[in-house]
Amino acid sequence: MHFQWYPGHMTKAKRMMQENIKLIDLVIELVDARIPMSSRNPDIDELGKNKARMVLLNKADLAEDKWNDAWAEYFKGQGYSVVKVNSKKGGGLKSIQNVIQEACKEKMERDRKRGILNRPVRAMVVGIPNVGKSTFINSLAGKAAAKTGNKPGVTKGKQWIRLNKQVELLDTPGILWPKFEDQAVGLRLALIGSIKDEILQTEELAAEAITFMNTYYSGVLEEKYALESSADPYVVLERIAQSRHCLLKGSGLDTEKAAMLMLDDFRSGRLGRLTLEYPAEGEK
Ligand code: G4P
Question: What global pTM score does this model have?
Answer without folding.
Answer: 0.90
